[in-house]
């Protein structure tokens, strides 16, 4: 698997699963190729360390087997570039050091090799990226020995060199092909589910063949969210998401575009899972939470009449309506419309409904990326708006209730919501791949993440 990591990072952000919306676009740019070229030298060197079979010396009356060992492979140059409408071209320079175990003394020689290979990038039948080697050619240079004092060894040198070159001509391309196959196995792991919550997951899939230019490779991705094993489907259709060309990508390794549809699906999942619901319970004698019947009784006489002794009050916050995310240039907002039932705890521990509220909360949404997850933080925009939906305690002055319930409602709601958004949602990635110094930009109807990459070995 180590050999796959070099080229593997080329497509490390390629996602996997179902062929519909919501839309995600991943672009890997020239800067990603430069990074892969640097960290890929080690895996390539190990892949090229092939086994050389014994050389059979036929110059005498008896065949003399001679063992040959590759002592070292050094790759000083490794370069990758995009081939438009095809895939990736690999070019590398490698220096081989061999040891020839010849009596009376072993002999060392070096051989310079230039390696050229073209790899096609396509879409597999299961929605994963697949790479295949279509062309490979090793150009073998002249060899040189380190010790020319032994005439017997020198007489053997020419046929040994030819033997080595014949072996390398055959085995080096097989090693590259094997490296690519390991890579395909590695990329196949992208089809696994990534947890979003205790009972929810997200899975990515390529929905079409990649678009490849001389500057980048771009992949259209479907992201499917699951709750209890069932896909989340929005009640409306969405057009296919296209990452606009004006989004600058030249100076970053990876560019990930996330559509409005993805945010809508994620919020629908949270709403269906009940993750946004919460109970806020008042405590008697608490300075931090004034939710009790005595405080409400000062504003609503009927509450004081029904509960002459102070009892705790509970706010049951339920989101029947799906939260709405709005994406405008440099501005992401979130609207929640919870239904809040105000309950008093009676002396027998039963709940007694006092009244209920329709609430509208507008929030500023700040997005960030940690490792390979998109996270969010919210803060309240303006005033929380309350409207009495029903009452078992007579007429209620909304303004007065707002002053009490609003203050004890806002902080727990934000704490709960930010804890959920802080868990994050997995972005397209592979195991051990992290986003480095990511920048999140909000546009009209979509979000763009521009980031470097780091593979943790």
Automatic annotation (TrEMBL):
Domain Lipid-binding serum glycoprotein C-terminal: 248-451
GO MF: lipid binding
UniProt key word Signal: yes
Keyword entries, A-Z: Signal
InterPro entries: Bactericidal_perm-incr_a/b_dom, BPI_fold-BPI/LBP, Lipid-bd_serum_glycop_C, Lipid-bd_serum_glycop_N
Record's signal peptide: 1-19
Pfam families attached to this UniProt entry: LBP_BPI_CETP, LBP_BPI_CETP_C
Regions annotated as coiled coil: none
Family: Belongs to the BPI/LBP/Plunc superfamily. BPI/LBP family.
Protein name: BPI fold containing family B member 2
Species assigned in the record: Propithecus coquereli
């Amino acid at each position: 698997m180590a050999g796959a990591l070099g080229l593997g990072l080329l497509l490390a952000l390629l996602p996997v699963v179902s062929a519909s919306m919501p839309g995600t676009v991943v672009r890997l740019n020239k800067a990603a190729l430069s990074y892969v070229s640097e960290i890929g030298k080690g895996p390539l060197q190990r892949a090229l360390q092939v086994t050389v079979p014994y050389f059979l010396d036929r110059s005498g009356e008896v065949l003399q087997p001679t063992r040959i060992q590759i002592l070292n492979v050094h790759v000083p140059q490794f370069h990758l570039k995009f081939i438009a409408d095809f895939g990736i071209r690999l070019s590398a320079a490698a220096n081989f050091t061999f040891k020839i175990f010849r009596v009376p003394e072993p002999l060392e020689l070096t051989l310079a090799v230039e390696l050229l290979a073209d790899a096609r990038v396509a879409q597999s039948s299961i929605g994963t990226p697949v790479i295949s080697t279509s062309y490979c050619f090793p150009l073998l240079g002249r060899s040189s020995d380190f010790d020319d004092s032994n005439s017997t060894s020198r007489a053997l040198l020419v046929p040994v060199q030819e033997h080595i070159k014949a072996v390398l001509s055959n085995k080096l391309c097989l090693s590259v092909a094997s490296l690519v196959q390991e890579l395909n196995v590695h990329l196949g792991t992208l089809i696994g589910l990534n947890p979003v919550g205790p009972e929810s997951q997200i899975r990515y899939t390529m929905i079409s063949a990649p678009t490849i230019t001389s500057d980048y490779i771009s992949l259209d991705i479907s992201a499917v969210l699951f709750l209890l094993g069932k896909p989340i489907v929005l009640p409306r259709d969405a057009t296919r998401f296209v990452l606009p060309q004006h989004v600058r990508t030249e100076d970053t390794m990876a560019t990930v575009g996330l559509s409005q549809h993805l945010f809508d699906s994620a919020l629908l999942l949270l709403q269906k899972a009940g993750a946004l619901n919460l109970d806020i319970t008042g405590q008697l004698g608490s300075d931090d939470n004034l939710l009790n019947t005595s405080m409400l009784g000062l504003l609503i006489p009927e509450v004081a009449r029904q509960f002459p002794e102070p009892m705790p009050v509970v706010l049951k916050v339920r989101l029947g309506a799906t939260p709405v995310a709005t994406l405008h240039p440099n501005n992401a907002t979130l609207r929640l419309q919870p239904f809040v039932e105000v309950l008093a705890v009676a002396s027998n521990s039963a709940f007694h409904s006092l009244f209920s509220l329709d609430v509208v909360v507008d929030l500023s949404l700040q997005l960030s990326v940690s490792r390979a997850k998109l996270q969010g933080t919210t803060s309240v925009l303006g005033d929380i708006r309350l409207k009495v939906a029903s009452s078992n305690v007579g007429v209620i002055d909304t303004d007065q209730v707002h002053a009490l319930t609003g203050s004890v409602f806002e902080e727990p709601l934000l704490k709960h919501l930010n804890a959920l958004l802080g868990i994050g949602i997995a972005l397209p990635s592979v195991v051990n791949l992290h986003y480095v110094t990511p920048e999140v930009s909000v546009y009209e109807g979509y979000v763009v993440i521009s980031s470097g990459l780091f593979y943790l070995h």
